[in-house]
Amino acid sequence: MKASELIKTDRGYRLLVDGKPFLALGGEVHNSSPSDAAYMEEHVWPNVRKLNLNTLIVPVFWELFEPEQGTFDFSLVDSLLRQAEREGVKLVLLWFGLWKNGESTYVPAWMKQDTETYFLVRDRFGKPFHCISPLCTAAVKRDAAAFTQLMTYLREKDINKTVIITQVENEMGVVGEVRDFSPAANDAFHKEAPETAAQLAGKTGTWPELFGEDAPEFFMAYQYAVAVEKIAAAGKAAYDMPMYVNCWMDQFPRIPGNFPSGGPVAHVMDIWKKAAPSVDFLSPDIYLPYFEDICAQFKKPENPLFIPEARPSADSAANVFSAVGKFHALGFAPFAIEDFGSSESGAPGEDVLKILDIDPAAFEKNQQAGDRLGESYALLNNMSDLLLAHYGTDALQGFTQYQLPGTVLSFQRYNIVIRYSREQDASGGGLVVELDKNRFLIAGRNFKFSFCPKTSAETCAQVASIEEGEHKNGAWQKARVLNGDERYIPQLGDCAQALLVTVREVR
Ligand code: DGJ
């Protein structure tokens, strides 16, 4: 049996781990944490243990993996495997190869030194960037060979099937220019565009002729996708598992180069899908506050939603309910996860965040952020069988507060009005599973709810009973029955919890 598999059902995509549907509730560690196994032991595992996650997302660095050309060091990967096995946590490995945040800082020193063979992206004036050009086939070939070594090692040594997904490269694209102006790139840009581009445009011609103002970004998307396809396909041939690419989101003002031009943002999803068929999905790194708008851009019939980097702010504990309940995501993972369980902030300095175009608010946590995320994860993890059984149906709906006073969910017999209980923060979020027309499992935090009959019905909706409890081990485990004072205004508090609510329609 494969370690993991992505299957397409008539109700959308499912991630199977050990043959069963799996919901990845995880976190991504800081970039440098896994460069030292002892650091992971001392500073990461003790902090993340409290968070109830089932998946940890960690980079593997090409520069440390292939320090001499053709000589590979598997020791860091091996210790990660052993640590994760011991913790009972699955891994998503990030291949920090040719590109990381639009640069080539993780390529081995022997490659960095040889800029003749491994040529760089250039701006319109010919100035080189710290980024190897995706048109440099020699570099792509070396990256594919190293990635193949990694995947072969996993196939042979990961006998407990701890690694379930790999990310190929990290937030690639050209930063600071609309496109690559190296001689190879200029030549390709002004030549007749390849068939993939012509098919998308419905005509033939050069890139500018086909795509006008969009040409530089579309051209770069194609070049990166073609390069990544070579790397991902080689890796998959060695060891087949789901693979994806992640993006640094485009944001206002949308000028390619302000965000990595050619990176796998939703605007160029068609190009990526056509030119990189070995990439199973495109994923957003969500540091922007309008979480649901971004999820909606990436959840498509041909693209399941997986969020490898969610903003590591306190609202993660609410946003995860929307990712799962509304967007039926394969997985959710805040960045800098080790900080959630720690008293130290660990956030990159404001000057670093400025370079990365990230608002410092994305890293703002309160003291309880770790506890709150841990509670959300425990609740969702225990009920994941129920949730996954309802994926792809309207019986599972979710929501998160952001800037809204509430939302209205429409089910078969009733509408449910959700009102967030705390206006001063964005801590409200939850989901509802319609178990049958009159029974609902309501889970989440910081909201009140009430039932209304559908507007067309001449009836009223009466709450017949409310039980506290938890869906665990495949069944509802009842706790208190809420009546009297606890029933006037049904609500969920600051700690994530679940209620089983029975409603009746009264004429
Ligand atoms: C997004 C990148 O993908 C991460 O590796 C990291 O650099 C964060 N930005 C910022 O800390």
How would you sum up this structure, described in words?
The N and C termini lie far apart (54 Å). Helices cover 30% and strands 29% of the residues. The chain has 16 helices and 23 strands. The longest helix is centred in the middle third of the chain and has 24 residues. An eight-stranded parallel barrel has the order 4-5-6-9-10-11-12-13, surrounded by seven helices. It has a six-stranded antiparallel β-sheet with strand order 14-17-18-23-20-21. It is α/β, with parallel strands linked by helices. It binds (2R,3S,4R,5S)-2-(hydroxymethyl)piperidine-3,4,5-triol. The site of (2R,3S,4R,5S)-2-(hydroxymethyl)piperidine-3,4,5-triol (DGJ) has 9 residues, from loops.
